[in-house]
Every structure is written in C-alpha cells, then in structure tokens.
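Course assignment 3, question 2. Fill in each field.
Student: A.L.
Task: Predict the tertiary structure for the chain below.
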Amino acid sequence: MKSTVTGTGLVYIQAVKAPLCLVLATLFWSGNFVVGQAARASMTPLDLTFWRWSLAAVPLLILAHLIERPDWGAVLRRWPVLLLLSVLGMSGYTLLLYGALGFTSAMNASLVTAANPALIVVMAIVLLGEKTTRLGWLGICLGLLGVLLVLTQGELARVVSLAINTGELMMIGAIIVWGFYTIVARRLAVPPIAATAVQVVIATVTLAPFALAMNVRFPDTAAEGWSMAYIALFPSLGSYLLWNLALKTTPSGTAGNYLNLMVVFTAIITVLFGTPLTLVQILGGLLVIAGVLLTGIKGQARNAGHPSSRAQPGPPAAASGRQGHSGSPVTMEEYGHSTARAARRPAP
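Answer field:
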C-alpha cells in the first residue's frame, strides 16, 4: 500500500512539475518588463543590457555544462552563427526592449511582444514560402488588430498619421529583430542552454567597448542594485533553466501556449503596483492572445502528419531555436514548417 501511495505521489509531482516550471518561467519574464521599466528611470538601455549579460554569462555556462554536458569544441565551431544570433537576440532585441521601456509602459511592451508568434509566422510565409490557412490568416489579422489598438490607444486613424509612441515603435523593431533571430536559429545544431550561454558571452564581449566608451556604470543605489539582481537572476537564468527543464517532458507547442501568460502576469503586476489597465489594453490583449492561439492551431494542424514534426532524439530547444534536429539536410518546405513551430518560443 505504501509503495502505491508513493508511486501515485511521484506521478502527481511529475505531472505538476513541468506546468509549474513553465508558469514560473513566464512569471519571471513578465517581471522583466515591470522591473526594466522601473530601472529605466535612472539607467540607460546599455547599462541594463551590458550588466544583465555580464552577470549572467558565467552562471549560464556552468548551468549548460552541468545540465547538457555539451561538446564545447563543436559548439564553438558554430561561432559565426552564434555571433549573428548574439547580435540579433542578446544585444539588438534587449537594447530595443529596454530602450522602449523608457517611452512606453510595461503593459504595452508586453502586448506588442505577445504578437511575436504571429509576426514570425508572417516572416516564414514571406521569407521561406511557408503556407497558411484561412484560420491562420484570421489569427494573424486578429493579432495585428490587437497590437494596432494598443499602439494607437484605440484611435486607429492615428496609423495613417503615424502618430505612434516612440516606445511602441521600438518594440515593433524588437520583435522584428527577434523574428530574424528565430528564423536563423532554426538550423543551429547546438544544445539550447549552451547556445544561449555562448551568445551571452559574445554579447558581453562585443558590448564591452561600447560600455567603456559610453561610461556604463554599475548600479550604485539600492533600487538599481535590486533591479539588476532581479534581471540577471530571474529572467536571465531562472526562466531559461525552468523552460528547458519543462521541455524535457512537455511538447514545445504546449509550452508555447504558456507564453500567453506573460501578458496576464504583466497586467497583474502592473495593477498591483498601482497602475490601472485601460479598456483598450484589455481588448488589445484579448485580440492578440486569440490571434496567437489561432496561428498555433494552424501550425499544429498543418504539421500533425509532417515527418519533421515528430520528436527527434536530442535536447529540447527553447533557447537555441532547435527542436532536437539531427543536423541532416532539410527541404525549404520542412524548414518553413519548423520555423512556424518555433514562433512560440520565448524572447530573452
């Protein structure tokens, strides 16, 4: 009887473990919007980006070595792709994100980011010849409408006059950069945490000359110190670790649905800090989430019987953009399918 109870308990723990990891990962990423906005009151985007990756670099390398035990020689041989990915994802996206948070709210930034999966599907259609269905296009249009509502504060006519907040324009640039990152990363045959760790190290090295030239300073107040500690520890280390642990037992498509919680968590944190939500933000958020879910349904339906959609042996890929690909040649059609599936993966 005791062994039966113990076995049932272990099954329950395993069933709860992955969802809990995914919820905590998205919660920590959501906090990055709010804490990043608060830190922007006294720190520049370069301050935040440089110290975020500088503080996270060594711990990420240690995590990668302990969890994945990669062939570091093979990883470093992919340095040209890793360099490009670092410039796009670790430096470009993060600088644009923190730059945007100086001009717009954390809530609006998270809402624009939530449309990223739909944008990546569009980029896959344009750049890779990926096909979509009417349901997929409906999801894309709903997501676009939701973002436009947020960008124009409910006054869609402002799109014609280009009277859109600088911060939201920077967020659009950020998710476009992340879209290119995702497309390039699909062919990277490197374990995910190792790939992220090397990209972070590259970002630290390549940003160092700019940090010196622009007198980047270390946080010198308690508020700045706690903000930097949170950004380096939770969204930079904790979220990546929890996300990859969850992907060991959770399909990437299922895990991707949890990213919709980022908007919800950001809204909750924002309200708790005393900033009320507007009706436009609520409507825009609902449209974006509905659009993302529809594009996700489209991707799962199209890939259900596709050979490249079956699980392959190898590490899960949240950070590298890979999903256990063996490195064998693929057709452009297969590449397009895999990129559409990669749309539902987190940005740093």
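Instructor remarks: Residues 2-7, 298-341 have pLDDT under 50 and may be disordered. The chain has one domain: 2-342.
Grade: pending
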